[in-house]
Design goal:
The protein contains 16 helices and nine strands. By secondary structure, it is of the alpha+beta class. Helix 10 runs antiparallel to helix 11 and helix 11 crosses helix 12. About 40% of the residues are buried.
């Protein structure tokens, strides 16, 4: 009985070659590559070979569905990410790449701590970019995800175009369980559309610090014109709740939903005076005990265009603030 249980566990956890080349949607994928992107017969054969060699990893779907943002309180989530070690590492990263970060801010308007904050949350400043083959992550979820198959299938398609155009073997790139790549953790579609060659060496490489820095700044400006980063503006302000919010009040949305005046009328008091008509969103964070409130401004939702979860935007913002404070103190004391 114990042996049978062990065998079942191994079957669930151990990667297994799936031969996705025989999946019903494989023909659709090949037709898209041929018609939309002019893949030759030889290139299509290479795609089929890659699909045949792809490994099925069901735990990737479980990881996506059980992301920390979905299951942890803000207190627990933030303590693991806005921590002294990461803050120090980030301040050192800012100091080391000060010239590149300054150039990105000059060109795109995104401050160095915000760029570093995203890098810190995504890959611990390039320290961990993921160990899962992107081919396996996107094939497993592109063909088998119970809810998001269209998204991952589209990214699998984009991945093969990326590999063709960059001369990359599809079996080589490694990334996150979702198929995101490099220091900046771009999905293939964003890699193709928004990554930039910021060091001007002729190669757009998100496994390099300079290209990652420039690409993150470009992403915040160009990904969604309605949430494009606005130079010189803050992200959010603290707020307090003066009375219970009506049950239907939208909170923790991916975009602004109120103005400062309408939020105030609902009982959300900002810690600083805001223009009455400035767009805001109501942020409600569940703590181990009680709740915490903020008003998100336009640039907060620009950061959330990178990852549409409020916890993500808050960790980037708070890590950026703490790193910037430490870097300023260290830089001014030299």
């Amino acid at each position: 009985m114990r042996a049978l249980t062990l065998l079942l566990l191994l079957c669930l956890c151990w990667p297994a070659t799936a031969d996705y080349s025989n999946h019903p949607k494989a023909r659709e994928l090949l037709e898209m590559l041929a018609v939309k992107d002019g893949f030759t017969a030889e290139q299509l054969q290479q795609v089929q070979t890659a699909l045949r060699q792809a490994e099925r990893i069901p735990k990737l779907i479980q990881a996506e569905q059980n992301a920390a943002e979905r299951v942890e309180t803000w207190t627990t989530y933030a303590s693991k990410r806005v921590d002294p070690a990461r803050i120090r590492l980030g301040a050192n990263f800012i100091a080391k790449h000060r010239e590149t970060l300054a150039r990105a801010e000059s060109q795109y308007g995104v401050p160095a701590p915000i760029i570093a904050g995203i890098l810190g949350i995504e890959t611990n400043f390039g320290g961990f970019t993921g160990t899962t083959r992107v081919l396996d992550a996107l094939s497993t979820q592109g063909f088998e995800h119970p809810r998001r198959t269209p998204f991952f299938f589209s990214e699998l398609y984009q991945f093969f175009v990326f590999c063709r155009d960059s001369g990359t073997d599809p079996s080589e790139p490694r990334g996150s369980y979702a198929g995101a790549m490099g220091w900046a953790q771009f999905m293939p579609s964003n890699y193709r559309r928004l990554a930039v060659d910021f060091d001007d060496n002729g190669d757009t490489n998100l496994w390099s610090a300079e290209d990652a820095i420039g690409s993150i700044a470009n992403y915040l400006v160009a990904y969604d014109p309605k949430r494009s980063w606005r130079r010189g503006q803050p992200l959010m302000v603290r707020a307090t709740l003066t009375r219970p919010l009506p049950k239907e009040t939208p909170v923790n949305t991916a975009r602004t939903t109120h103005t400062a005046s309408t939020a105030k009328a609902l009982g959300i008091a900002a810690s600083v005076e805001l223009p009455a008509n400035i767009p805001v969103g109501i942020i409600e964070l569940s703590l181990d005990e009680g709740k915490e409130y903020w008003l998100g401004l336009h640039n907060f939702y620009s950061v959330m265009s990178y990852n549409p979860r409020v916890y993500y935007g808050m960790t980037v913002a708070q890590l950026a603030e703490r790193m910037g404070q430490l870097d300023t103190h260290t830089h001014s004391s030299r």
